[in-house]
Amino acid sequence: MLATHKGMNISEQEYLAVMDDILGALKKNEIDAGTCNEVTAVLYSLKGQIIRV
Ligand code: HEM
Fold this sequence. Notes:
The chain starts with a helix and ends in an 8-residue tail after the last helix. With 53 residues, the chain is mostly helical. Helix 2 packs antiparallel against helix 3. The protein has one domain. The relative contact order is 0.24. The longest helix has 17 residues. The protein is built from three helices and no strands. Protoporphyrin IX containing FE binds next to helix 1 and helix 2. The site of protoporphyrin IX containing FE (HEM) has 11 residues, from helix 1 and helix 2.
């Protein structure tokens, strides 16, 4: 994840926009709340490998 996003200068706002899109897609597809929370936690844990790396 770090190697992929390195040098892209991704802002916190851009990261959050992707989070929103992913969670929106989960909701639209009626994925259960527990799974949505789990996915949110995984995405959040990757933050440091994506933003301004
Ligand atoms: C929650 C946030 C994000 C997640 C979980 C995520 C995850 C990923 C994953 C899994 C890949 C594929 C990696 C691979 O092929 O090995 C990828 C590629 C990519 N991501 Fe992200 N990403 C996120 C945010 C962003 C943002 C905000 C941008 C730009 C504004 C971005 C730009 C890209 C680009 C351009 C690629 C393609 C790189 C390539 O194939 O050369 N990502 N991302």
